[in-house]
Specification:
Blueprint (H helix, E strand, L loop, with lengths): L2 H15 L4 H12 L9 H14 L3 E5 L5 H7 L7 E6 L2 H13 L6 E5 L2 H10 L5 E6 L6 H10 L1 E10 L15 H15 L3 E8 L6 E8 L2
Parallel strand pairs: 1-2, 1-4, 2-3, 4-5
Antiparallel strand pairs: 5-7, 6-7
């Protein structure tokens, strides 16, 4: 394992393949200055989310876990005219920073940042009939991954895509005896996904600026 090499490769691909984007850079800088944890997706991962949303033709996107709005902004840049994002954030400071970042980037009218614990706000979305969502990105507390997935599935349609971040956790996902609630949260999610006949699922490992981790990707097929 060579994190220095991973970072260099990430920087190479980002430098060669990604356009310089002032709004994205400013969002990261503002989030750092506000003291938010440095746990947003990397630039190359953000572009992957953007491409998946574009391939999906996603007009209605749900994000669970906003942080400073960096991944939200990548997804917002994939929206067609009239598209929208609902992003859920439990921390008031994070929500405030994200709203400012998204407004500065020009997406205040297309992105709604909802403050509150996601397991409280997700039922509100169902009651308000905000869905179905074409794509859901789950990147919040890992111990609740299964519940988030179940709600994402409930708020999806056939053909929707559900993406879950941080499922490898430096390989710790293999440890069935782990006392880490995040590891157990991921393992519980994997079991739940494996038994769900309405989705077709895979998981991929990633390395780079965010260390050794990965995504689970589920396509709603029924």
């Amino acid at each position: 394992m060579n994190p220095t090499l991973w970072n260099q490769v990430d920087d190479y691909f980002a430098g060669e393949l990604l356009d310089r984007d002032a709004a994205l850079a400013t969002t990261l800088q503002a989030s750092r200055e506000a003291g938010l944890p440095d746990i947003a997706v990397s630039a190359t991962q953000g572009k992957l989310l953007n491409l998946l949303a574009r391939v999906q033709g996603a007009r209605n996107i749900l994000e669970i876990g906003t942080l400073g709005g960096y991944s939200t902004l990548w997804l917002a840049k994939a929206l067609p005219p009239g598209g929208r994002i609902v992003t859920l954030e439990a921390d008031p400071k994070h929500a405030e920073v994200a709203r400012a970042n998204l407004a500065r980037a020009g997406y205040a009218n297309q992105v709604q940042v909802r403050l509150g614990a996601a397991l409280d706000t997700l039922p509100e979305l169902e009651t308000e009939r905000v869905g179905p969502f074409d794509l859901t990105f789950i990147d919040a507390d890992k111990r609740s991954n299964t519940e988030y997935f179940e709600w994402a599935l409930r708020l999806s349609r056939r053909g929707s895509l559900i993406i879950v971040d941080n499922v490898v956790r430096e390989g710790k996902v293999l440890d069935a005896a782990s006392e880490d609630p995040s590891v157990q949260g991921v393992r519980r999610l994997v079991t739940r996904m494996s038994l769900e006949t309405r989705v077709s699922v895979t998981a991929i490992q990633t390395v780079g600026h965010k260390g050794y981790d990965g995504f689970a990707i589920a396509l709603v097929v029924a």
